[in-house]
């Protein structure tokens, strides 16, 4: 599959574990040396983990490495190059769960909130260096992540094709808009949360009763098993 994508875009395929800092550093250095300056980096890797406080520490470590530290590590090694050139674009693929929450999955909700926070901080701190940051917060997207399902609770507003998400990202990049919301309904949910937190919590508690408890009882879609 990597080769098909590579050939279709006349690109170069490189394997990397996005939960390992030195793998990400290797890719950055290899691209800069062998291909050329990186203009745009999309931090798209993410893994799930359903469950709550009972999720073991090793699984927390795996999902934190991929969903959170991935963005820290890339910024550590790529942003100095962006600063030297006075330009660069970094894209975080977070989730609507990072703006609202994810019932039935404490690790996913926590790590996607963290990904949004990292993106905000980078956007604020590196703007004067010419670095732009965009943060994608979709609900269900058709991918290996959602294969064999209807997207669960995240699929309530429809399952989007990856190309649709990519088109929305490009539109927001053209407009220099930080937050990328391929599902426009997410903005309404986010605004409702901000305007009346207690009402929002009550609504999410009802959603937990219908979806969250089922998800927590379901066979683990855990980071430990990927």
Total strands: the figure is: 4
**Beta-strand fraction estimate:** 5-15%
Structural class: alpha/beta
In angstroms, what is the radius of gyration?
18 Å
Name the quaternary structure: single chain
What share of residues is helical? 40-55%
Order of H and E elements: HHEHEHEHEHH
Structure, described:
With 226 residues, the chain is an alpha/beta fold. It has helices spanning 2-9, 21-34, 57-85, 106-125, 162-175, 185-195, 197-217, and strands spanning 40-43, 88-93, 131-136, 179-180. A 4-stranded parallel sheet has the order 1-2-3-4. Strand 2, helix 4 (106-125) and strand 3 form a beta-alpha-beta unit. The protein is globular.
Briefly summarize what is shown.
The chain is of the alpha/beta class and 226 residues long. It is 52% helix and 8% strand. The protein contains 7 helices and 4 strands; from the N terminus they run ααβαβαβαβαα.
Question: Could you name the key traits of this structure?
Answer:
four-stranded parallel beta sheet
């Amino acid at each position: 599959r990597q080769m098909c994508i590579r050939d279709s875009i006349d690109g170069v395929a490189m394997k990397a574990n996005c939960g390992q800092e030195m793998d990400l550093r290797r890719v950055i250095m290899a691209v800069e040396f062998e291909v050329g300056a990186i203009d745009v980096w999309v931090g798209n890797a993410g893994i799930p983990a359903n469950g709550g406080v009972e999720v073991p520490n090793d699984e927390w470590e795996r999902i934190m490495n991929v969903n959170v530290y991935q963005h820290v590590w890339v910024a550590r090694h790529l942003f100095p190059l962006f600063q030297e050139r006075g330009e660069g674009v970094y894209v975080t693929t977070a989730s609507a769960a990072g703006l609202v929450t994810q019932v039935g999955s404490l690790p996913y909700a926590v790590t996607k909130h963290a990904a949004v926070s990292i993106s905000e901080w980078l956007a604020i701190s590196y703007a004067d260096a010419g670095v732009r940051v965009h943060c994608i917060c979709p609900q269900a997207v058709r991918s290996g992540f959602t294969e064999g399902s209807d997207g669960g609770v995240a699929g309530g507003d429809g399952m989007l094709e990856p190309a649709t998400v990519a088109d929305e990202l490009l539109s927001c990049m053209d407009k220099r808009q930080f937050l990328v919301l391929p599902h426009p309904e997410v903005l309404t949910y986010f605004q409702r949360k901000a305007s009346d937190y207690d009402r929002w919590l009550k609504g999410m508690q009802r959603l937990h009763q219908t979806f969250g408890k089922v998800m927590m009882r379901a066979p683990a879609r855990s980071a430990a098993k990927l």
